[in-house]
Design a protein that fits this description.
The structure is a homodimer of 188-residue chains. Chain A has 188 residues and is α+β, with helices and mostly antiparallel strands. The first copy, chain A, is built from 5 helices and 8 strands. An 8-stranded antiparallel beta sheet of chain A has the order 4-1-3-2-8-5-7-6. The model of chain A has no long low-confidence stretch (mean pLDDT 95). Chains A and B meet through helix 1 and helix 3 of A and helix 1 and helix 3 of B.
Chain lengths: 188, 188
């Protein structure tokens, strides 16, 4: 069951037989995998039940930013591309869960690890404007993952995108990740 | 419709004919009021539908803290009382919505307004251990309010509790509040 009231910030990722995105890989980075499916549909609402023939679905909500400062927000806004660019025919859907130790930290401790010690925002900036990104929050819906990040990039930028996700996975912040799946897709 | 999966962090506030709390006042501080009802039940799950005879319900989720630093978290933990104290027979349920300008601010700007300029955490500390408090997040469920704060206090501490809410409503942070209702209850 999705949230209480309709909201344009709600999304459902539906894996099954239909949708514009063909799933080329579903790989468990840490923890239990998500089963691969032929295709993925990204629906801009919180579907209350799994559509017929679908294999699984995950929900998420676009929310306000939890960590970026005004200076970072302004810098990001100047270079981040929109989703839906014609040339960005590759996508990555990365559902991720952090452990209880992370969620028990205070705000300043989480910010310290995320940026001062892991350069999460700074690393992301290095790979802009190649990859478009949208973060979906799921933890407070009781979903199996805390976040789903959705990226779109052109095939020529795939090596750079690989370098981005590898760089993030080497950080201290990622030591708090207890489950992560990396799903790659192509729009055809 | 409440969120996707059961979770012990989910709550439903049900106003109607039943429940341990008698509603003594429902007062709109800003924006549209919530209708008064004889009683309130606080259910520790996200009810999918309004129970028979109930007048309205609101959902919320206990989540990680968005603003407190480690020093503040430690100081609060040392003095904040639990809910359910026998002597705390008074309660306040305060649903509140902030405006779009607030949600467009970056994290450092919101923290600056909330604490450096409005002393939200410091003001709250002055009224501990008299009032127990639990914050419920609702914004990302598409609910009519962004937050519901629930307080419990003894009748003798009612004047101090009034001073607390009045002090908070005078702050710069409260200029971003576009809807607020103040519901007072007694357990009998």
């Amino acid at each position: 069951m999705p949230p209480t009231h309709p909201n344009s910030r709600f999304f459902t990722f539906v894996a099954g037989e239909t949708g514009p995105w063909r799933m080329v890989e579903s790989r468990a980075i840490r923890g239990q995998a998500l089963p691969p499916a032929p295709r993925l549909d990204l629906v801009n609402s919180a579907l209350p039940a799994l559509p017929p023939q679908a294999q699984w679905m995950l929900h998420g909500c676009v929310s306000h930013e939890r960590y970026v400062t005004r200076a970072e927000k302004t810098a990001l806004a100047a270079v981040q591309p929109p989703l839906g660019r014609a040339e960005a025919t590759c996508a990555a859907m990365i559902p991720l869960t952090k452990n209880a130790a992370w969620w028990h930290l205070a705000q300043d401790e989480r910010r310290e690890i995320l940026e001062a010690r892991s350069s999460h925002i700074a690393i992301g900036m290095q790979y802009l404007p190649a990859s478009a990104r949208r973060l979906h929050h799921c933890r407070d819906w009781g979903e199996p993952f805390d976040f789903i990040t959705w990226f779109e990039y052109a095939p020529a930028d795939a090596p750079r995108f690989e370098a981005l996700v590898q760089a993030l996975r080497m950080t201290e912040e990622w030591q708090y990740v207890e489950r992560e799946t990396d799903i790659r897709l192509v729009r055809d």
